[in-house]
TrEMBL record:
It comes from Varunaivibrio sulfuroxidans. This is dITP/XTP pyrophosphatase. It catalyses: dITP + H2O = dIMP + diphosphate + H(+); ITP + H2O = IMP + diphosphate + H(+); XTP + H2O = XMP + diphosphate + H(+). GO terms for biological process: nucleotide metabolic process; purine nucleoside triphosphate catabolic process. It comes from the Bacteria.
Length: 202
């Protein structure tokens, strides 16, 4: 049986300020008293899972155990068709220790140029967001959301974070980097995952 969040403190198991802002905006109407792992000084566990869900559960379990409160973790990334799904679960690592996403986006563009020379010309891609809600006893509820689109170059827009400036979602003319936050939240992979999680657990 699905376990439901009964309110009170909820730890967002992330040190990514952009991600924390997005999650906080989605959670605020649900009666959660949100605090981030960074605010609590919690360490970051080693993410050695083979899937987005596995890595989300690793982060949420660690934060719940360390804080004694229910914790929510997100693991998300960009999967590029012509690159066999890369960078995928390694999306943050492509940005390096300095979290240089401009360099990571250039790396993707270079990889797409090489793929095109081999006849793989698709620029299709999708974002994935896995959300895991974990309790201090180790119980987790996890869901996964996606949003599909194409990659553009050069980068467009200063809003959002991560790979947002190169991702143009299907049916839209603005990249995630150009969209106002409310417009992005309405259609994003994170919003899709949140809808699934709130229906199940809130």
């Amino acid at each position: 049986m699905t376990r439901r969040f009964e309110g009170g403190k909820l730890v967002i198991a992330s040190h990514n300020a952009g991600k924390v802002r997005e999650i906080d905006a989605l959670l605020r109407p649900l009666g959660a008293d949100v605090v981030s792992a960074g605010d609590l000084g919690l360490g970051e566990p080693v993410e050695d899972g083979a899937t987005f869900v596995a890595n989300a559960e690793i982060k949420a379990r660690a934060a719940a155990a360390a804080s004694g409160a229910v914790a929510l973790a997100d693991d998300s990334g960009l999967c590029v068709d012509a690159l066999d799904g890369d960078p995928g679960i390694f999306s943050a690592r492509w940005a390096g220790p300095g979290k240089d996403f401009a360099a990571a986006m250039a790396k993707i563009e270079d990889a797409l140029a090489r793929a095109a020379q081999e006849g793989r010309t698709s620029r299709r891609a999708h974002f994935v967001c896995a959300l895991s809600l974990c309790w201090p006893d180790g119980h987790c509820e996890s869901v996964e959301g996606k949003v599909f689109g194409v990659l553009v170059w050069p980068m467009r827009g200063q809003k959002g974070f991560g790979y947002d400036p190169i991702f143009l979602p299907d049916g839209h003319h603005l990249t995630f980097g150009e969209m106002e936050p409310d417009a992005k939240h309405a259609i994003s992979h994170r919003a899709n995952a949140f809808n699934l999680l709130t229906e199940a657990c809130f």
